Amino acid sequence: MADHEPEDDSSPSGTLRQPLRLALADSIADSIAEAIATNNLKPGERIIETSFSERLGVSRVPIREALKVLHAQGIVIGGSHRGYKVATFDARVTQQILEARLQVEALLLRDAIGNWAAGLEDPAMLQGPIDDMRRAARVGDVRASLQADLNFHRVFRNAARNAIVGTLWDTIARHVLIVFNFERYRDKDLRAVVRQHEAFRDWMLERMAAPVDEDEIRNALEDHMLMIERGRRRHGAH
User: Fold this and answer.
1) Which of 6, 15, 25, 42 is 20 to 30 Å from 227 at the Cα level?
2) How far is residue 94 from each of residues 102, 170, 188, measured CA to CA in Å?
3) Residues 115, 161: contact at Cβ < 8 Å?
4) What radius of gyration, in Å, describes the C-alpha atoms of the chain?
């Protein structure tokens, strides 16, 4: 029997397998996370692959791949023959997400402010998501407001030019989308959401003119992230 040469995995076909399907699965994972964030999928609710396949007009294969990604991230639970269910984001998990986000975004914002000040990136990019929030507020579109909020933070994630920390941000972005639709973290008045982000943008722009203080950045981020919850605590205390 003749010997067969091993397949050359260094070829383009060996290193870039099924990119369209993988990209589709990632997009579907985003759609499922958005459905959870906007309460169209409830904690503990079973996810029916056939239902999503019909609604999205795709086969069950990328649906299954998307669910595997979300399962690895802890956003859905179960799997195998049991099927998947939406995870419950209890107080402990929520706190872990908040802590991770605060640490990651503090590093990203530090680098972003430095790059804006040096003229390497354009802080005007922050305006686009704010405009999207304003449009969402006019029509009462919670989903669009949530996505614009995440995109606002994605601007300084990208402006930081920090590949390692940026990848960590990407990993928890879906968690953040879900958690920050919880009532205690988000204002029901979508116009107030616009004002909150305008104020935070102005704070960032002001910091470009002076040396960056990392503790100040962390404190400002924490205030921005927890503004609604802290306000409700103060209101409830009186």
Assistant:
1) 42
2) 12, 17, 20
3) yes
4) 21
